[in-house]
Design brief:
249 residues, alpha/beta, seven-stranded parallel sheet, binds NADP nicotinamide-adenine-dinucleotide phosphate
């Protein structure tokens, strides 16, 4: 196990389940980072993940807040700061996400806005809440979980594709704004990954479209986050790393 660096923390949004859970585990296991574990409402899953993280020897702060709501984001992060006044946040993973798929011709305003607000505005709310601190300490790793949908486009996901493509653009711009401060900003674009988000999809049909003929695992995405969080990735910024079994556009 990595040496535990007691004061170093990572914030993982949507860390209770799926890809976010695997990323939190990887950051704890590989880098000994303590974890601010954000989620929306599934307390049971968050507590199970917190238990698994603590078994790796790191501290965990459960931070239930809706990334769509800027005031709740600020309050949630302030609560963590009050509980751990000596904490130094080094890694921020914008991972929280949902889908509300529909063909554009049938898409309801609520489906469009909820997805844009969760992903794109969630990225804004969380990143702006922590960015000054990263700039001041002249070090940081911002990792945004986007999607193949944001690069290739997927029918039925204009809302989700637009949100993810927006985050990719923001990743590239922000990377240039903060590069001199030793802060890297990168995105990971998974293809089809096994999680609650994809459990109702027709895997047999979709596998035929994937060169590797299988869905990826959350751990395969988390391995890239582990690398992007490491000192070895210091010269990589503004990049989108695809984890999709060869299913490029
Ligand atoms: P998941 O298993 O459904 O987990 C979603 C996580 O996001 C949960 O922790 C959930 O919290 C949290 N969340 C949802 N809305 C939130 C909100 N408004 N505020 C705070 N937390 C919120 O999804 P996943 O498959 O791991 O997806 C994780 C990320 O990867 C998403 O950004 C998704 O778009 C992206 N992605 C996934 C795939 C895939 O194939 N699975 C492919 C490409 C990209 P609760 O547990 O409280 O509900």
């Amino acid at each position: 196990m990595a040496e535990i660096k007691a004061e170093k923390w990572a914030l993982v949004t949507g860390g209770s389940r799926g890809i976010g859970r695997a990323i939190a585990m990887e950051l704890a296991r590989k880098h000994g980072l303590n974890i601010v574990l954000n989620y929306a409402s599934n307390t049971e899953a968050a507590e199970q993940t917190a238990k698994a993280l603590k078994e790796l020897g790191v501290q965990v702060h459960l931070a239930p807040f809706d990334v769509k709501d800027a005031a709740l984001v600020t309050e949630g992060i302030d609560n963590w700061r009050k509980a751990f006044p000596d904490a130094r946040l080094e890694v921020v993973v914008n991972n929280a996400g949902i889908t509300r798929d529909n063909l554009m011709v049938f898409m309801q305003p609520e489906q469009w806005h909820t997805v844009i607000n969760t992903h794109l505005n969630g990225f804004f709310n969380v990143t702006t809440a922590v960015l000054q601190g990263l700039v001041r300490q002249r070090y940081g790793r911002i990792i945004n979980v986007v999607s193949l949908s944001g690069t290739k486009g997927v029918p039925g996901q204009t809302n989700y594709s637009a949100a993810k493509a927006g985050i990719i653009g923001a990743t590239r711009s922000l990377a240039q704004e903060v590069a001199k401060r030793n802060i890297t900003v990168n995105a990971i674009a998974p293809g089809f990954i096994e999680s609650d988000m994809t459990k109702d999809l027709d895997q047999a049909m979709l596998k035929q479209l994937i060169p590797m003929a299988r869905f990826g695992t959350p751990e395969e995405v988390a391995a890239v986050a582990g690398f992007l969080a490491s000192p070895e990735s210091a010269y990589i910024t503004g990049e989108v790393i695809h984890v999709n079994g060869g299913m490029h556009s």
